[in-house]
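for the record, two folds in this file. i put them one after another cuz i was lazy. first one right below, seq on top, structure tokens after. the second one comes after a little note so u can tell where it starts
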Amino acid sequence: MRNVLLGAGLLVILAGVAGAVLAVTQERRLLFPARRAPVGTALLRSVDGQPVWLERAGVRSEAWYLPARGGAPGPAPLILFAHGNAELIDDWAREFDEPRTWGAAVLLVEYPGYGRSGGAPSETSIANAILAAYDWGSARPDLDRARIVAYGRSLGGGAACRLASEREVAALVLESTFTSVRALARRLGVPGILVRDPFDNLARIAAFRGPTLVIHGARDALIPVEQARALHAAAPQSELVIFSDCGHNDCPRPWPRLLEF
């Protein structure tokens, strides 16, 4: 009888382990639906951009550098942009035309395993890519190291918060961003302990002492607007902008508000 009970207990444990492994695997598939991209520079040439290859921790990642098109003479400020989880830098090549006319340069950072980059996506590998991008930009004499802005959208907010916690950035911009992946997982009934890539934005933004702009759509069904309010409440020097008539992927570019900020 004892052997039967031990066997049944072992089966329960194995089933639990299998379920946990499946949940962890699914978590990464949902969090990082990486898309590949064809080799080619026609789009990049059309926006007067330059490819940049970054290497850190043995992984080679791509970035696109979009020089400023106006502004005062001298080193330009840099917007370092991290995109959403199902996006590519290719999707954003034309979206930053307006800030470039202000005199801001832009660096679009691709994630490992996305586009043409090597490696595989994870919180650690994405952090390495964004840190390498910052180090590349801060070393250029035509860019102002004191005016590097970390801008993250959705998943990219996690990359931007991580950057702000490890490098000196002039400001932080979070668009449609969550408090943490664990908080999102709990909403779906997944135990937070199974999340391998927590992206704890709430803790990192609370420790950041620079100016922060939090942008969100009131109708966001993917990341509730309450999470934007929580980020704003936690950030010592933050402004909150809520667009009343959009959701997660259909909000207008916030260039007027960003320029004011």
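(here's the note) second protein begins now
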Amino acid sequence: KVLYDRDSLYHRIIVEEYNDIRYLRFSTDIIQSAVSVKEPDKLVLHYTNYAHLAFLFHPDPHQILVIGLGGGSLPRKWHHDYPQARIDAVEIDPQVIEVAKRFFFFQEDDRLHAIAQDGRLFVQRTRTHYDLIFVDAYLSSRIPFHLTTREFFAEVKKKLTENGVVAFNLIGALQGPKSQLFRSLYKTLQHVFPQVYVFPVGTVSSLNEESIRNIILIATQEEKRWTKAEILQQAEQLERRGAVQAPVSFFASTYYTEKVLLNGVPLLTDDYAPVELFQIR
């Protein structure tokens, strides 16, 4: 059933409930967020669990920034599981923040804050340096180009701590005709960060390299590149210590080791970022 259906300055916001799962949609776009009414601390959408992969590269983040709130399930989960962390969640649409509070159990306190502001503007103005920045503002049908460019990533890098990492969620394909967004973002990130790691979400046999799916990109400031064996070893160690509250060993096993083909895709800049041409749906 539909619980909420209203237009804001930025979206048509729709909240639907099926059985005990509550969903957030923007217009007819794919699901943006979901929560179990019976188990609100459980992450429903698979890709949100994969975001824990960022903890492999910075196991004990104390300052976290999330750009793109949706229903707020991920910052709420991290707030619950990692009491040492202070989390800022930035969302351009203030009505989305209100919907997250009203329908998705999102609550602010002294460690969890929601800021109604454009993500790039917040990055430019904040004086805080973050151990982990997670960008989750890429939709499948509408892509905010100013959050995809070399200049934006350079601004993000300036607001990281010495060993801070950046994680990005996007929807696309690894190869084939619908891979332009992924390959352009990868190319652009490589111009700013020494290392970029790719983790496709899901290992279902029906998903191949041309399948549309969530893809998690993680950019680090380390000169050394980790091997897959080192990534898996780190994941196992963090799980054994209880330092991460997710099955990151399984997620780490999806690490994409194939060469990303960068020919024919642009480096995205503030002057040229034709991401509207890369829409996949």
